[in-house]
Amino acid sequence: MDMKKFFLLTTVVALLASCGSKDKGELVGVQGKKWHPEKPYGMELVPGGAFIMGKADEDLAGVNDAPAKTVTVRAYYMDATEITNSEYRQFVHWVRDSIIRLKLAVLADEVGKVPEDGGIGEFAFKDADTANMSVYEKYMFENYTGLGPTGYEGRKINRDIDLIFDTAEYPDEYYTEVMDTMYLKLEESYNGQRTWDVKKFKFQYNYMDIKEAARNRGIKRSEVIKKEEVEIYPDTTVWIRDFAYSYNEPMHNDYFWHDAYGDYPVVGVTWQQAKAFCEWRTINKNSYQKSRGATFVNNFRLPNEAEWEYAARGGLQAATYPWGGPYTKSDLGCFMANFKPVRGDYAADDALYTVEAKSYEPNDYNLYNMAGNVSEWVNASYDPNSYEYISTINPNVNDEQNNRKVVRGGSWKDVAYYLQVSTRDYEYGDSARSYIGFRTVQDYMGTQVTKKNGKK
């Protein structure tokens, strides 16, 4: 093509582009969907700001791992309460049901059953019927489905039809075969009740190690995408193992699954399980967002140590406890939290073990039980010297090689020292305890909200 023809073609293209444009040739930016911040259900907005992190008074225990330091954190949402048994059960049921649906779909595929056949066929993969696929879905199915160790990666399970749990209503022998694999063996059952094999309740998720990618700029993207598989059922035996020579069998038998404890904080979860819950909560919410064509939300996650302490203080500087301090009783002589007061009188605060997650008075950020009830996992590894070298803006230390993970807030079995907002403690990330739970946070997006400007 000679230069004259090329110039003419370029001019025509430019004219066509200009004529079809709505921006009138001005720099108006790319216009996306209108976005408005939406407060997540059950969460409270914690405005960003600076505060003095660490011990304001003498460290009576002599640990000296929290020297005072001024730091600044950005705005975020935080759960008003600790994650409850009922909320965690939603996670467990989702994982259990997903595993059942996948097994049903695989078996339906193996025996050649489709929805029109009824029975297990109704639970076949969504792509069992290719007639109703969009062009994109068909392309993805033909080019990417099954690229993995099982051969079923990328295939969508059917969540539109309800699972059947009543054995008298199982539709066929194939369905019965799948359900049989989800329970413990008959010889392991007792009192005529067959129990779920909770070891099979495993949640898989992928995440990108952004810090590793930032440190190694030449690394391949595939090398920083990590895969995790976590058994997510709480360890109910913690009620027995944590207390030798103590009768806590009723808590072991009933605490997690019985509706009487639905609004109580979940315990017996490891740091890894708490992180898995955060990943599931993000997936669950964004699946709903996708179904209605809405913008995806930020990830739910565990708070870092500075965020937790800032939220626990509720805007009060140099306070000993979330309600101020330095006392654990109100003016009326009532205890302000659930802990172990009066030299071991567990019942002095009207609670023997945990209490409902929305108990006692919330702090000034409307957050409940930031002291007492259960200690809470945070996204930080414990280093007694970390306050000496952390950043002063959004500080966080989480060494993946350090399995000692920070817990904050104290619990129902702790003395008052551990309820102080500045007190640090730790547990091993793969350990579960009857006195450790967690709550989640989500980053706030949009015009920055700070304690000074008071915007909401």
UniProtKB/TrEMBL annotation:
Spans through the membrane: none
Signal peptide: none
A GO term for molecular function: formylglycine-generating oxidase activity
Domain Sulfatase-modifying factor enzyme-like, first and last residues per copy: 43-441
Keywords in alphabetical order: Lipoprotein
NCBIfam families for this protein: GldK
Name of the molecule in the record: Gliding motility lipoprotein GldK
Organism: Confluentibacter flavum
